[in-house]
Amino acid sequence: MLTHTQRLPERDPIAAAVRAAELELGEYCAHVQARRRAQHPHDAAARCRWTAEELEERDRLARVVDELRTFTAAA
């Protein structure tokens, strides 16, 4: 569910893209963590281990956020 600030129209399309990328990254990380908690409710070490594919996707999303922020700062 979107919060009030997320529903407001963004005047700056670049800022909107940064916000969307940040939200996607946060949602992906939360999804992986929730899945780990469900799979390993009593094993803290197992809950902290990410697969190579999950790490690659997280890193890809983080690079998108960084690139958008860099582009915004340069503009």
Concise structural overview:
By secondary structure, the protein is an all-alpha fold. The protein has four helices and no strands.
Compile the SSE list and pairings.
Blueprint: H1 4-7, H2 13-39, H3 44-48, H4 52-74
The beta-strand count equals: 0
Largest sheet features = none
The poorly predicted ranges are none
User: In percent terms, what proportion of residues is strand?
Assistant: under 5%
* H/E topology pattern: HHHH
Radius of gyration: 15 Å
Structural class: mainly alpha
Number of helices, where a helix is a run of at least 4 consecutive DSSP H or I residues: 4
- As for the number of domains, it is 1
Helix content: over 70%
Kindly report how far apart the N and C termini lie.
31 Å
**What is the overall pLDDT average?**
86
- Gross morphology: elongated
Describe this structure in words.
- By secondary structure, this protein is mainly alpha-helical.
- It contains four helices and no strands.
- It has one domain.
- It has helices spanning 4-7, 13-39, 44-48, 52-74.
- The longest helix is centred in the middle third of the chain and has 27 residues, at 13-39.
- The chain is elongated and about 50 Å long.
- The mean pLDDT is 86.
